[in-house]
Amino acid sequence: MRPHRVKLVSSLLSLAFLGACSVPDHPVQRPRHTRAVLHPAVLRPVVIGRTAWHADESSVRKGLVYDHSVKAVFVHHTDNPNDYDCKKDVPAMLLALEQQHIAMGWDDLGYNFVVDRCGGIYEGRSGSAVRDVRGAHTEGFNTDTIGIAALGNFGAGRKVPRAMLKAIAQIAAWKLDPSVDPLGKVRLVSSNDGSRYPKGTAATLNVISGHRDVYETTCPGQALYDALPWIRKTVAALRQKATYAG
Q1: CA 113, CA 124: separation in Å to the nearest integer?
Q2: For 179-195, what is each residue's pLDDT tens digit?
Q3: How far is CA 149 from CA 105, 138, 246, in A?
């Protein structure tokens, strides 16, 4: 990847992204060590590793935080233009996002996973493909959750590619704790006053929610938000299929 191309993409993203989706807790809480064990209900989908998008590992803050399990999923969009080439443009776009997040003090790319419009699934925050790693994606609600970002802008009137929706559902079905109902509700406690819920306040949310449900934002865009019921049903179907197959 040519340096000048990365800088160009980064500059194009910077203004739009500052008001977009990913907002961590400040500071990032680093609790006592907890053992995290992954019990997938469905097979892991194909996840494109960080080396494919040339993640800047030298700038990543060391010391990952692991959660007990994944109780909920927050869906985001990155607010990028939607006309990118999945093979040629995505690596530079992800690297630019990582660089911005690190510059903001968020340790690494904030999202656990990013999906492109062609259905490609990328590992975002380091370690997310193998452990329940805490990200920096939803202020006040990063604990025991994952953030999945759709690469693009999916405001009202935009079309969300079916391949992208399927990819989001595949990640959620795989990462959510088997005891969690993807069609159900979850009780989470806010850890930050910056969210819609003051610190210490309990929120009852959909297991698969949009960023806007807990933060003052339009993220993940109206079109993608309207697709969340379809994603929930698809996740439930994938889990049911895995149960029968087992």
Answers
A1: 5
A2: 999 999 999 999 999 99
A3: 19, 11, 30
